Amino acid sequence: MNNLQHEESTQGRRRGRTTLTVSIMISLFAVLVIAAVLVVPRVIDAIRGETFEDYPGPGSGTVTVEILPGQTGGDIGQVLFEAGVVASRGAFVEAFNDVPAAVGIQPGAYDLRKEMRASEAVAALLDPANRAEVKLTVVEGLRASQIYERIASVTGLPLAEIESAAKDSAAIGLPAEARGNPEGWLAPATYTIRRDATAADVLSLLVAQTVTVLDERDVAADRRRGVLIRASIVEKEVNRVEDYGKVVRVIENRLQPDSPTNGTLGMDSTLAYGLNKSGLELTRAELASDHPYNTRVHAGLPPGPIGSPGLAAIDAVLSPPEGDWIYFVTVNPDTGETRFTASYEEHLANQQLYREWLAQQSDEG
């Protein structure tokens, strides 16, 4: 055999071995694929049968669980498993994934039964009736007494219990500068209240929100009370946010010892608060009375806030516009139009506009 024939024979044997190797690899791959198709599902089923234990339901008793913002189906399943609501985390995850709406489960507290079927636990978390909490909305300008009534109405807590808790400054986190008076420190906002919350718990939330608002604005402790008093007056005196800053400036101008008002605010809203009446109900005798909240008689700010101010009023106090205004009057309560002036003669003319508005209402009535 010559060299050329020998080389061709050798190359042929190599090609044969290569072809055999590839065939063996393809065969092995095919075996692995078949094994994966036939065996893996059985293994998964076996795992599921052991891990995804589920209760038959419907369960019994009651337990409150807390779902936190951002928790996944697996996180929620773990919470429910640890609380004894579901038999396993896996069972809940499987039920969670079967319900597309489950991704809409809201954070919060829920009252659930123990030993529930996982699918029923998912359904229960999607039912608002199982929320172990209520929404409390406090609007701007309310007095503390009105807020207590609102809390009682929404939570079912006895009014007397709320009023009693309000007197415990330490229990509700009332700062020392409040001088034991929650008035003005119960921040307007919408709160999520757990059904098992105590009166002190609820009031603490409102006080803490006020402290947060003031801290965010870098209001020093020794300024907080004055800011809240001013802002609470603003809330009562006008109803258009664009006028808030002007009212603050009027307050500052009137507080000056050399002002035309000799340092008195002359705000009927403060006396109305002190007498627990509407400003329209004040009598001439009351306007001349020596009541501590009568800012016609007593110079300076009243003893405390006269309601709970909102963010806009607080911000107006912290950054009022420049101006020489001393007087103002709302000439049209329907629209809220309020006129400001430094001239007493112009103020008298503006008061006449208000009287004309009143007369028009009487004629139309």
State the end-to-end CA separation: 130 Å
Order of helices and strands: HEHHEHEHHHEHHHHHHEEH
Rg from C-alpha positions?
Answer: 36 Å
Q: Whole-number average pLDDT?
A: 88
Could you tell me the number of beta strands?
6
SS strand fraction: 5-15%
Overall structural class, as computed from helix and strand content, comes to mainly alpha
User: Which bin fits the share of residues in helices?
Assistant: 40-55%
The major sheet is characterized as: 2 strands, antiparallel
Low-confidence stretches: 1-17, 31-50
The rough form would be described as elongated
Characterise this structure.
- With 365 residues, the chain is mostly helical.
- Helices cover 52% and strands 10% of the residues.
- The chain contains 14 helices and 6 strands.
- It has helices at residues 3-51, 73-82, 89-98, 118-125, 144-155, 159-166, 169-172, 199-216, 221-237, 244-255, 268-275, 284-287, 311-318, 344-364, and strands spanning 60-67, 108-114, 133-138, 189-194, 327-332, 337-341.
- The protein has a two-stranded antiparallel ribbon.
- The chain is elongated and about 85 Å long.
